[in-house]
Amino acid sequence: MLSHFHNFAKSQNFLIGASLVRISIALLLLYHYLIHYFQRYFLWSDSGVNVYEPKEAAFSLYNFNNSLAYFDLIYHLGIIVTIIYLLGYKGRIISIINYIFYFSLYNRTVHISDGGDNLLIICMLFLLFANTTAYFSLDAKKHQERLKANKTSFFKDISMIFHNFAVLACIIQLCVVYFFSGGSFK
Amino acid sequence: MLKSKGRTIILKSLIIFLAILLIFHFCITTLHSGPINPISVKFKPFTDKYVDNFFRQSWHLFAPEPLTNNYTMFVQVKLRNNNTESEWYNITDPLVRANNDSVFTPYNRMLRVGLGYINSYNLGVTDVLTVKIMNKSLEKSDDTSRYDELAEITQSEVEKVLYRYASSYAKKIYDEKDIDKIRILINSTEAVPYSKRNDKEYQPEENFTTLEWKELNNNVVAFP
């Protein structure tokens, strides 16, 4: 059984699914950024409804300056990074940058966010370790070329192990949500 | 050969390490977000610290105790000109209607931010879980001073934000220069219980809270 698990952890699993998740998340983030475009100052800026004390507030790129121009700069950069993430360019690096931008906005969503945002930000963190650009992306060609060459390497194995555990963590997290929200009554 | 064996050991160790980490992480998550029990209360300081920045989550909203009150927020403006008082403007209902008009709408979150703060103002704390824990501790002791102290601090903080919200709305209706003061009225109406859904005579309980006149907050943008 252990050797089965070992083989499973090293092999290429969930690559199409992870790529589809990347596209879904990117579309959701874009929707989130764009649908609130004209309400952005009110909802998230220092001139908005919430009060942010820089020393007490959770990490956010928006905390470094309270001017609306700086807020706009970070907000628009966030949109651009999300579009690159959607296109699937430079997989893990863009994933990390995209996570930092959205995490910054998420930490400013006092009384605005819901369970969906909560689940999204947790899964986005797990997916930083996953390969989400193997399919339907600008990086997909590289992945196909590597597949054709059929080369295995030590670092590729490590990468796949992290990928498989990351996807597994997302699946378990989803189970936790529905188990505790619906299944575990008093 | 030796190199290959060394790599296999590293890969196997990594798999074991990640498997243990995965189990550990979800044990903590389970303690943090599961139903309250003696174990989760005992480990709360550790689990709270662990989940604090990246894994904070609460799935208590769906069940078994959904919210039981509907809140409406009104704002009244005292104008500089002749010290006249405006009518009470209902902030909540137009947002509810705008939100219900379309699936794709920004008003969902606009509405949520106001109602979230009103809910915190009435609860006296910011989350439902803390209310539960406080109520459990009150069952064991009659000393309500800690609860009252926490409620007072939270209400004072939340009140500041409610006035920002109301100031923003007032700035949408009137020119900033014309506004002298504003005040807020919160209406809390009990939801009709399921067992009374067909009872046309049933009158849900209503409560009104009027907050005092305060200066307009100039540091907030006009309501979009």
Descriptive terms for the model:
heterodimer; A: about 190 residues; mainly alpha; 8 helices; about 65% helix; B: about 220 residues; alpha+beta; 2 domains; five-stranded antiparallel β-sheet; 5 strands; Sporulation_signal_mat (chain A)
Can you characterise this structure?
The complex is a heterodimer of chains A (186) and B (224). Chain A is 67% helix and 0% strand. With 186 residues, chain A is mainly α. Chain B has helices at residues 2-33, 38-42, 44-51, 92-101, 107-123, 128-140, 145-173; strands at 69-79, 89-90, 179-190, 206-210, 214-215. Chain B is elongated and about 90 Å long. The interface between A and B is large, with 49 and 50 residues. Chain B: Pfam families: DUF5819.
Short description:
Chain A has 186 residues and is mostly helical. Chain A has helices at residues 2-10, 15-35, 40-44, 68-87, 91-106, 115-127, 140-149, 154-183. Chain A has one domain (14-183).
Mean pLDDT over the full residue set of chain A: 91
Instruction: Look at the helices and sheets of chain B and give the structural class.
Output: alpha+beta
Percent range for β-strand residues of chain A:
under 5%
Oligomer: heterodimer
Radius of gyration of chain B: 25 Å
Query: Strand-and-helix sequence of chain B, N→C?
Result: HHHEEHHHHEEE
Question: What gap, in angstroms, lies between the N and C termini of chain A?
Answer: 37 Å
Please tally the β strands of chain A and state the result: 0
Using the alpha-carbon principal axes, give the shape of chain A.
Answer: globular
Overall mean pLDDT of chain B stands at 86
Strand content of chain B: 5-15%
Largest sheet of chain B: 5 strands, antiparallel
Overall tally of structural domains of chain A: 1
Kindly state the percentage of residues in helix of chain A: 55-70%
Low-confidence stretches of chain B: none
